[in-house]
Amino acid sequence: MIILSLCVLIGLGIGYFFGDFINFDISTLIQIGLYLLLFFIGIDIGKNKNIFNDLKKIDKKVLLLPFITMLATLLGGAVASLLLSLSLGEAVAVSSGMGWYSFSAIELSKVSVELGGIAFLSNIFRELLAILTIPFIAKRIGAFESVSVAGATAMDSVLPVINKSNTAEISIVSFYSGLVISLVVPILVPFIITIFNL
Fold first, then answer.
1. Four-point Cα dihedral 134, 61, 39, 32, nearest 10
2. Residue 98 burial by CB count (10 A; 0-12/13-18/19+): exposed, middle or buried?
3. Cβ neighbours of residue 102 closer than 8 Å, sequence gap 6 or more
4. I need a labelling partner for 67 at 20 to 30 A (CA). Which of 18, 99, 136, 153 fits?
5. CA-CA distance, 68 to 100, in Å (whole number)?
6. Phi, psi torsion values for 110, nearest 5 degrees
């Protein structure tokens, strides 16, 4: 956890102080790094020879996990509208990003720059909070709950933390959950914008 936080802080420092000297596309490096990360997690999962037997023992209700995660996230957005100066539609639209900060921020920026900024920060904070809390949630509350916290990022950037905090079969469930959520978000965000006439 400390190493992850230090890496982010060092990256922030380098970007802030030396960003003008970095003249290559960092997003390509991030994508390559993410592919390598998923590749090595696949190797780690594959080392467990009983993985398929373990998966058969998992309750089929796990297939509902991404849908329950999405419903709970949207309800959380609705509750947040009672505490914030955002309307119900705006709060639900922000929460509909499910942690996918780049997509939701761009889509909601079409509604207003402020809402796009809120979506970006909200989803970034969700990912950071997931990274910080997943080890505790996995240990004290439950494995599936630790997957749910990550939202769409359960299949990529937060997967290493989930993998480290849970058993190998939970990593596969996490990838499945994140994949389903990531497939739904590009439909869900515009749908919420239309429904609430934002």
1. -70
2. buried
3. none
4. 136
5. 17
6. -70, -25
Helical pair 168-195 and 143-150, crossing angle rounded to 10 deg:
40
64 neighbors 116 (Cβ within 8 angstroms): no
pTM of the model: 0.77
The letter for the amino acid at 27 is S
Structure tokens at 143: 């494995």
Alpha helices in 47-158 (DSSP H): 51-57, 65-83, 88-95, 101-109, 113-140, 143-150
Which position has the token pair 């990022």?
153
* pLDDT single digits (tens) 85-135: 999 999 999 999 999 888 888 889 889 989 999 998 999 999 999 999 999
Q: Could you give the CA distance from residue 38 to residue 44 in angstroms, rounded to a whole number?
A: 10
DSSP code, position 63: G
Whole-angstrom distance, CA of residue 45 vs CA of residue 129: 24
